[in-house]
Amino acid sequence: EAKLKGGNRMAQFEAEFDHERNMRQTIEEGIRGGLDRGEFAVHYQPIVEAATGRVGAVEALVRWPGREEGQLGPDVFIAVAESSGLIHQLGLFVLRRACEDLRDLHDLSVSVNVSPAQFRDPNFEYNVAEVLAEVDFPPSRLELEVTEGYLIEHPDRAVAAIAALKRQGISITLDDFGTGYSSIGYLRRYGFDRIKIDKSLAGRVGADPQATALVSGTVAIANALAMAVTAEGVETADHALLLRAAGCQKLQGYHFGRPVPLADLRRALSNVDRPAAAASADRAA
Ligand code: C2E
Ligand code: MG
Ligand code: MG
Ligand code: MG
């Protein structure tokens, strides 16, 4: 009887495994076709300077319209793109689109996420340079966001890639800080310009004294090592105040704005750029 039970469990496991593999294959086919058909879009989320509230940068976030209703957000399809190798094409598409979209918004920098798999490609830094040259986008306005996993696994390649990108004038940000295992002191050797504190940590500031101490400490060490700090996942005015008090130089989150298509970003920016005009229009009304 025990044997039968074990066998059933095995069969169930195999069925689940098959199901998952089929899902992954379906998504992979979808991404391949979606790239060919131009289905992917890029949305932009404002990043504000904590001291002034000015929008100085935006983060480019890939979207797959029509596909995200289920559970198919970027967290899911990016993972499939990574395991299938399609991330190289998808990643360069996002970079190119972001640079094209923002080229004439001269006051804005753009942060583009880079997957570890892209970093592994020895041509990555050349491909980036090529896109910037083709689009005529100044490297000084580009930040690339990387997560720590790959860096730890392949430190030599990571150090070389980051150095090559920085020589081009591109800034490098460590994304999702607080979700990994490494100390800032260790990560320092990669030469990051900025650390982005993950929303899982930033979101607990105020409510959780330990999280608050961790954020302040991170800021202190990062600043001492000439790295700036951005907090993400800022959802309320209270959080914004606390994270600013903790020393974060830049803030990003739903409190300031969700990721939106380019047209909405332009509209939002033109509203804050002309406060006087908006105020006089209000008075006239
Ligand atoms: P990430 O780079 O850490 O991006 C931040 C995520 O937090 C985004 O989710 C953003 O929409 C979300 N977010 C921003 N503010 C708030 C907030 O106040 N509250 C909450 N709850 N969430 C907030 P999204 O767009 O679903 O992207 C998820 C992840 O997918 C990204 O995390 C990034 O790792 C990956 N990703 C997105 N676009 C790209 C891309 O073009 N290339 C690569 N390689 N990865 C991407
Ligand atoms: Mg990011
Ligand atoms: Mg992040
Ligand atoms: Mg993330």
TrEMBL record:
Residues annotated as domain EAL: 24-273
Protein name from the UniProt record: Diguanylate cyclase (GGDEF)-like protein
Species for this entry: Oharaeibacter diazotrophicus
